[in-house]
Amino acid sequence: MIGSCAFAATAPRFASGKTPALGFADFTRNAAPSLLGSRTPRNGALSARTGKRFLPIRATAVKEARNRDPPAAVSPDCRKVMVIGGDGYCGWATALHLSKQGYEVAIVDSLVRRLFDEQLGTYTLTPIASIQERLKKWKEKSGKTIDLFVGDICEFQFLESCFKSFEPNAVVHFGEQRSAPYSMIDRSRAVYTQHNNIVGTINVLFAIKEFSPECHLVKLGTMGEYGTPNIDIEEGFITITHNGRTDTLPYPKQASSFYHLSKVHDSHNIAFTCKAWGVRATDLNQGVVYGTFTPETQEDEALINRLDYDGIFGTALNRFCVQAAIGHPLTVYGKGGQARTLEFSTRGYLDIRDTVRCVELAIANPAKLGEFRVFNQFTEQFSVNELAKLVTKAGEKLGIEVKTQSVPNPRVEAEEHYYNAKHTKLMELGLEPHFLSEGLLDSLLNVAIKYAARINTSLIMPDVSWKKIGVTPRTLVSKQP
């Protein structure tokens, strides 16, 4: 039988008092307020299995035997997977998918993404339950337990306790502030984004080195690291000849926000530790993700994933579908010629169902010790205008008149540019992509229609400018719908 650990550890120290407005002067991890007031521990970890809160300074492992062995399809060498950021958009879907496939899963999350919603009023279109309720429902539906560790990975003592207690074979790292617009609101958000993302990742690398040296790191990167060069984008590395000499080097990075820059720093730090310490790592440079459902999140409404439609966290296709559902013109930035690879606000796209499958493939086919791999994780490329046309056509079939309006581009980026990125490695491992279809667009539009009463129209228009970012903290207060 496989042993399992619930644990006690030191979690991040939260400031007391009510949640402050977004414009507080120095938003750092140590100043982050408690998300749910007295319902969330200021200093401690929660066990999903027992519901107990632990508050000692050092970790105390509580062993509890599981009543099942992993399916034969799951290799014993990678059966235990820690999903950092498992309460988020990609992390939640991935945790459920891996659990369903027979992996032993633990979620590590500070729940800070929910805090951002409280501060900004940028609530998900779909109503999401608390993480404890989600995991309880998953156990009811699947019979499978996912461990929960609540805390901040920027606090190394907490992360050390997670590693010693769970002893992961693989770590899937989604636990970063993932919005480019958020990182460009003001100086404090820029600093928070870089500190949270870079320090958190360095802590994960040290934890692997010290406590799980055989562990495989699967890190979520972004296609935005590459920028929009006027040459083809390779998967992580490029072979060049210069002055008669040839070498294979990391592909040049041209990040376009403080968020994207934090991802570039992550990639460099991971590559360095693979070389220096023998860490094994796979960097998944993901495109813009769309959709909200996976087979697992559809099993019950309490398991539903979030769907962001606002100008800070919402991605292009998800935003367009919500806008179309309520009769708001689709907000195309500038000329709309920006080619995007479906996922974040960069250049390539993929279905959320493919995100979870890509992670599974990376885990099942781990990098070698000392190897730093880069996979470009997207399935299709579109311009923003092409996405708008697809949504317009899908809306018409549902009897919705969809209009488009051009709005000033808040970003600093080329309005029209060459874009061709390679993405063959995951296909070679067996990825069978879900391409953007009328059925998927119908599904997104119907989800938006179902929850239309939750839409706050004041959040739709972009309100963060790359050029106007300043040192004065901004308080962004959404108007009530």
Automatic annotation (TrEMBL):
Q: Where is the NAD-dependent epimerase/dehydratase domain?
A: 81-376
Mind telling me which Gene3D superfamilies this protein's record contains? NAD(P)-binding Rossmann-like Domain, UDP-galactose 4-epimerase, domain 1
Instruction: Show the GO MF annotations.
Output: UDPsulfoquinovose synthase activity
One cellular component term (GO) for this entry is:
membrane
- Please give one Pfam family short name: Epimerase
- Do you know which CDD domains this protein is assigned to? SQD1_like_SDR_e
SUPFAM superfamilies reported for this sequence: NAD(P)-binding Rossmann-fold domains (SSF51735)
The identity of this protein, by name, is NAD-dependent epimerase/dehydratase domain-containing protein
| Native source organism of the sequence | Selaginella moellendorffii (Spikemoss)
